């Protein structure tokens, strides 16, 4: 077992200097399966905070990687990472090493859920994403468009607008109407969104952000 973790606490490297933070977390050692299971059992059975620290610190690079997927929303990268770190710590607290799933897979959805919640709290969407299905569309449309471009067989990887066929695929996969896909694409491309936190108590229904993910396996419970 590695000994470089001895004495570490749950204090995370500072986010004030983002490049230095990312460089620091990328240098942190990763855990083997045996080390991960041992640390998780010590945390679960003995509330061992050093073990919790090992689990958190060894997965900070995962948070950085996931946070990059959300840079297109115009929110500070450091804030996205900070929220993702909160999700990671929640995942570590609830992780069961005896379920046959690695922490990296289990934590991924907790990290995304926390980042999604942060985005929803800090974006004021104008006539957009007013239903649960539309919010799922909001969070998945960018990645689905990237997937279409990456898989393009005609070499047209720089085309911005979705084709009619691609719109139909998105609508079917996300259970929304094709016209809703077109409207969402137009609004997101045109910047018809104001960066303004929604006021508290405005009567808007709160949704769990993990519900907007297309892939809901191992989702937080």
The gross shape turns out to be: elongated
Helix content: 55-70%
The pLDDT mean sits at 78
Total beta strand runs: 2
Biggest beta sheet summary: 2 strands, antiparallel
Which structural class best describes the helix and strand composition? mainly alpha
Number of H/I helices: 9
Radius of gyration: 20 Å
Can you identify the CATH class of the largest domain? Mainly Alpha
The side-by-side strand order for the widest beta sheet comes to 1-2
Spatial separation of the terminal alpha carbons: 31 Å
Low-confidence stretches: 1-10, 192-219
Describe the oligomeric state of these chains in a short phrase.
single chain
Approximate strand percentage: under 5%
User: Can you tell me the CATH architecture of the largest domain?
Assistant: Up-down Bundle
Q: What is the H/E string?
A: HHHHHHEHHHE
The total number of structural domains is 2
According to CATH, what is the topology of the largest domain? Four Helix Bundle (Hemerythrin (Met), subunit A)
